[in-house]
Design goal:
single chain, alpha+beta, 17 strands, 31% helix, elongated
């Protein structure tokens, strides 16, 4: 008998198959017993029928508890009332292990309890749906860049210097030296872009920010494209195309999961390019009109981002930020050097920033000046300065945060549910 997965069950109508999984739920009705079986790809109803109350299969059924692992053999049948429209008429059950006192029951549990049992919480329908969408999101991103001729070139996680700022680094020992967990692969991306033209890295990044908000993680995943010869205008277009591509893919492939999450998809269906494009100055004006006390030169925090992303019913691109709010490598605007050619893309519905990037400094003398102004140890950046000595060119890129993008797509209010094992402030277990 062939072992099959629930997601493929429609291909085996009226055939005898074997399913391997876990008991999601059970119930009895007269001479019939029902098992909801999950195998990681879906949930299916399996039915037992016997006129005898003490039949061997019923005796096995009576032992089953939530999350017990079993192997079921039976025939695939259509059943419109069952989840997914199919069920298994059980011929045999093999019990692998009986789960005792499974802690996550159908009753309500508090978030601290669920986070302590995150390794088990992943099995619940909503958490499973979120992570299924995450899988498709990552695949969509790779398909987008791979289909446009980008090279995926990995960047190091252990680095000798900071990228985004020295105050948010996790420090570790590297034999007789200090090393830091990477905040971004961008600086290394710039080197590979000068070798390959257009590249992206995709991996974990780390920020030692003592932030306890619904939008912050200590460890998160970013995709970071970098394109030689690209200007701010080029990279805005690339970011718009990426977001539209992602949303289209999720709406196409993950309808079932979005339904489980009860996600209203109408706001996502409105995500079309071009996005509204405003400058920092215009954003400041909008914020003040809505009661914000923010002043020119202040960086946007979560309240400002949330307010701005509620003003527009689609993602919005914000550019031309004060130089003091951005990293040392940002290219100043030729017409107004007080602002840089930076880019933030804010998701709609109040979810805030999902993309940050812009055009990089390509002039050696200007970059040397910035390294000095930011009190960065030049010896750690000699290789980065070399990129401006040998064939320098304007270039641009950005980082898109996977977890923030997923939170927006799924309409999740807290980012901790967007990856299997979140790392939060003071939260390292499990």
């Amino acid at each position: 008998m062939k072992w099959v997965y629930i997601e493929d069950i429609a291909e085996y109508l009226d055939q005898e198959v074997e399913l391997r999984g876990w008991v999601y739920n059970t119930r009895s009705s007269g001479k019939i017993r029902f098992i909801l079986l999950r195998d990681g790809t879906g949930i299916i109803q399996s039915t037992l029928f016997s006129p005898e109350k003490d039949s061997p299969l019923f005796q096995k059924f009576d032992q089953l508890t939530q999350e017990s692992s079993i192997i079921v053999q039976g025939q695939v049948q259509k059943e419109s009332r069952a989840p997914g429209g199919y069920e298994i008429s059980i011929q045999d059950i093999q019990i692998i292990q009986i789960a005792q006192d499974y802690p996550i029951t159908p009753k309500q549990h508090g978030t601290p309890f669920l986070m302590e049992n995150r390794h088990l919480w992943l099995r619940s329908q909503k958490q499973h749906a979120i992570l299924q969408i995450r899988t498709e999101l990552i695949k969509a991103i790779r398909d987008f860049f791979d289909g446009r001729g980008f090279r995926n070139l990995d960047t190091p996680i252990l680095t000798p210097s900071a990228c985004e700022g020295t105050t948010t680094l996790f420090e570790t020992e590297y034999f007789d030296q200090k090393a830091y967990l990477s905040q971004s692969g961008q600086l290394y991306n710039e080197a590979t872009a000068m070798a390959f033209g257009k590249v992206y890295c995709f991996g974990p990044t780390f920020r030692a920010e003592k932030s306890k908000t619904r939008k912050h993680l200590m460890e998160f995943w970013m995709v970071e494209p970098e394109v030689a010869f690209a200007t701010l205008k080029d990279i805005i277009k690339l970011g718009e195309e990426l977001v539209v591509f992602i949303i289209g893919r999720i709406l196409e492939k993950n309808k079932k999961e979005l339904d489980i999450l009860e996600r209203d998809t109408q706001p996502l269906e409105k995500v079309q390019k071009p996005f509204p494009r405003i400058t920092y100055e215009q954003a400041l004006h909008n914020l003040k009109e809505h009661g914000s006390q923010i002043q020119w030169g202040d960086d946007f925090g979560a309240p400002e981002e949330t307010l701005l992303s509620k003003i527009y019913d689609s993602p919005v691109c914000i550019t031309h930020f004060p130089a003091q709010t951005k990293a040392f490598y940002m290219q100043p605007d030729e017409e107004n050097p007080e602002v840089v050619l930076g880019l933030d893309v804010l998701a709609s519905e109040g979810f805030g920033e999902i993309i940050g990037g812009g055009q990089r400094i390509h002039d050696l003398k200007l970059l040397e000046k910035k390294v000095s102004e930011y009190n960065l140890p030049r010896k750690d950046y000699e290789w980065y300065l070399d990129l401006r000595k040998y064939g320098s060119t304007p270039h641009s890129g950005f980082g898109l945060g996977i977890e923030r993008t997923l939170a927006w797509i799924c309409n999740i209010k807290h980012i901790r549910e967007t990856l299997p094992f979140p790392r939060l402030l003071h939260k390292l277990y499990p």
